[in-house]
## 1
Amino acid sequence: MTMSMVELETALRGLRLSGMSGTLQARALQVAAHEMDFIEAFSWMVQDELDRRRSRLLDRRYALSGLPERKNLKSFDWTYNTRLPKREILELGTLQFIDAREDVLMIGPPGTGKSHVAKALAVMAVDRGYKVFYREAHQLVEDIAEARELRGLRLYRQQLKAADVVLIDDLFLRKLPPQAGDELAEVLMSRYEKASTIVTSNRLCGAPHNRFNAERTVTQS
Ligand SMILES: Nc1ncnc2c1ncn2[C@@H]1O[C@H](COP(=O)(O)OP(=O)(O)OP(=O)(O)O)[C@@H](O)[C@H]1O
Ligand SMILES: [Mg+2]
């Protein structure tokens, strides 16, 4: 029995092999042109499927992370701010701090690239298969308040706890409600020495120093 190309594509999609169905016609052409034998073409189709699954898994991880951009350190413009502590940032790029369950605190004047660097590290972590959770600090506080109202706080806390890396961006950039200190301290303490948290802030003033003991502090002059 021989299926038509359309039937084969439909059957492959039905079997959830859309990576294979997507390249079937092109692979068939390669075989017809004697560029590949059957086994070689089939191996490539299996690879096409694996590639597609990996890329979809990554897309899902990004969507879940809440990260707004997908830039990593490879395309980083070091000339943008020559006072960045490049050595320390590249060391953080190894992501060993995640396995060591260490925290990172990035402090420096406004507009110097702290969030840019932190997001690039978080993107690299997603690429390496870590579960990442990104929120601007004010958003995190709002999310927690909303989850409490909807009686979903336990679930939200579990989600935070399950992340290998939580990036709390721009702490103190916006005015936070009075309960925010306790909410954020709770997040930090629940993760301390269990999983990494990255915090960026342009203010030291008001930071909960006594509650947040970062192993790695990256400061900019
Ligand atoms: N290395 C870089 N290459 C290109 N653009 C950059 C770079 N670093 C920062 N930027 C851009 O400069 C702007 C400010 O950077 P960023 O938001 O990271 O600063 P910040 O230190 O977090 O500031 P704030 O303290 O106000 O939060 C952003 O639009 C960012 O995309
Ligand atoms: Mg910032």
## 2
Amino acid sequence: MPDGLPTEIDLTRPSAARVYDYFLGGAHNFEIDRQLAEQIASMTPNLAATMRSGREFLRRAVRVLLDAGIDQFLDIGSGIPTVGNVHEVAQGVNPKARVVYVDIDPVAVAHSRELLAGNELTGVIHADLREPERILAETQQLGLIDFSRPMGILLAGVVHFIPDGDRPEEILATLRAAAAPGSFLVISHSTFEDQPQEMLDAQRLSARTDTEITLRSRAQVTGFFGDWTVLEPGVVHMPLWRPDSPSDVDEHPERFGAFGGVARYDQPAG
Ligand SMILES: C[S@@+](CC[C@H](N)C(=O)[O-])C[C@H]1O[C@@H](n2cnc3c(N)ncnc32)[C@H](O)[C@@H]1O
């Protein structure tokens, strides 16, 4: 067990964050995670590419927010800060950008704290997206994000861990209600739409981690933006969301298995 990790980690069960870290080429994972990752990879060889595609979508979305003047980010389900993390992208453009990371996984949180020690414009919170009020209260306590100003709320690859029974639409409504006009919401979310059977089978394996995935339709994902204005090109397969260059888009963008979208809170007139 590496130094500084919390003692409550259950090493007999794989963790979604560490499986993800393994796919991204990170070092913050254990044998149990690598075994599940390899099993998933043998069923769907392009899954590692899918995860990288998710990070790439997040990077492009964060840059669009930075261009719009956003300088504070609440990244929920942030994972292990492996490659191309939000604060690196944001502070690379605006050194004064502030980022609060939130994750349910104690390993992700411990590594985040270790990696971010000394970066005073970042904070880390150990919390569950199913408790949005707590996340908002703890974020306010940290004092990094000014809720009276626009912010970017990032929910990349995390809302699909919330089953319908935990009322994800209410969680999203709570988060949106806390944001000032001009704020942005970024979501990427796994889908069953346009997917081959082997992808659906692999997603089912996620039931072995602490957090099972609920695949959702484009209409359901779009619904999470509520009445905010969804930016062009809408909620689309992730590689199609404002690619850096048309040549970056895979011939089959649907094979990455997830939709991505960004919306802005435009204050209603009057
Ligand atoms: C697929 S990773 C995405 C990481 C990062 N957002 C990205 O896009 O690169 C999903 C992360 O969500 C976290 N997670 C899952 N369920 C969660 C919940 N209920 N509350 C907070 N985080 C959660 C997992 O621990 C994992 O780190």
